[in-house]
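Render Tudor domain-containing protein 5 in 3D.
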Amino acid sequence: MPESSVQPGQLCCVTVSKWWYRVIIHRVINDQEVEVFYPDYGNLEVVRKSWLRFLKWCYLKLPAQAIPCSLAWVKPVEGTWCNAATLLFKKLCGSKLLVGIVDEYVNGILHLFLCDTSTEEDVYFHCVLRDGGCADVCGENIPSQGFKELNPSALYVQPSGKQENAELLE
C-alpha cells in the first residue's frame, strides 16, 4: 500500500502466517509498524506496514463479524477497570468455550453474562470479578468509561437493528 493510504480508519487486509485477514488501521506507530483492528475477530495487533494490502471491493461490503460486548450487571470498583480485573478476565477466558447469556442489546453494545461450564460447577464471570474485589454487581448495565478506547469495534462497527445491514464506518 502506498504510504498516503496508510492512515487510521483505512480498511485493508494483512497477511499473517500465510493467511489473509480484513483489518482497519487503528493507529500508525512508526515508519515500519501500524496497529490494526480485526473487525471479524475484535482484537488489536501490531503488524508491519509491508504486510498491508488493499482489500478487494467485494470484501469491503461484508459486515463486521465482531460485535461490541460488555459484561452485564458489573462496573469497576474504582471507576475504571484495574490491571487485576483485566488479568483475571483474561485468565477466565483462557482459550475455552464459554456460554454467553444475552441480557440486552443497547446502543450497539451487547451486554451479556459469561459462564464457564467446563467444570462441575458453573463459573459466572461477574461473580468471580465481584468476589475478587475487582467489580461491583450493580443489577443494571452501565457503559464503561472509555468503552471506545477499550473496545475498538465500537469505533468502527455501526450499530444496526438488523445484522445483515451492519456495515463498517468509513
